[in-house]
Each structure stands twice: as C-alpha cells, then as structure tokens.
Specification:
Length: 111
C-alpha cells in the first residue's frame, strides 16, 4: 500500500512539472478597482489546488487520529472489571422469588 502512495505522488509531481513547463505564461487577475495581480499560470493552478486540498487533508488526518485514540481506549479497557466484594448484595431471596438459587438440592426436593 505504501508503494502505491509513493507511486501516486511521484506521478502527480511529474505531471505537475510537465504542466508547469508547458504553460509558463503570465496571467493577470483583477483584484479590485485598479489593482491587478500578475502571476504565472502554474503558480495559480498549484496554489488553488493546495488551498482546496490542505484543509480537507488536515481534517482527514485529525479525524483519523481521534478515531484511533477512541479505538485504542476502548480496546484497553477491561471487558469485565474486577469485582469488589463489598458491592455484592446479600444472598437473600427477593420478595416473591420463593426459592433461593443457592439452597441445597435436598431442601428443594422436600418442598
């Protein structure tokens, strides 16, 4: 998978260089009343790409980081926490239950 990522970025950079060499022309961008920004076309295209790509890339990385932290926290918590003997209620039958499950079998048969 890492190889495919590197291959993608190498191909992308090579295409960006080829585009830049073939389209190195001056572009005028009107900014307001009398102000004009003159820049090269590849700078404008690559800058526009980065303005659109970087915020979404950072959002993706932050979301991935948060979800990995949640998964690791969920995996590190024990499923059955250790019992505290002081929290176990007495073994008295509930009202209406009739028979305690802890009584010996001989007592149950005699009834």
């Amino acid at each position: 998978m890492r190889f495919l990522q590197i291959l993608f970025w190498v191909v992308f950079i090579v295409l960006a260089i080829i585009f830049s060499v073939n389209n190195w022309t001056l572009v005028e961008i009107p900014l307001g009343d009398d102000s004009i920004l003159e820049t090269k076309l590849p700078v404008l295209v690559i800058g526009s790409f980065l303005i659109g790509f970087l915020p979404l890339y950072f959002w993706h990385r932050i979301t991935t980081w948060r979800l990995k932290r949640k998964i690791n926290a969920a995996q590190n918590t024990p499923r059955n926490p250790p019992l505290n003997m002081s929290e176990i209620p007495n073994n008295k039958p509930h009202a209406g239950a009739g028979i305690s499950p802890l009584e010996p079998k001989s007592n149950l048969e005699s009834e």
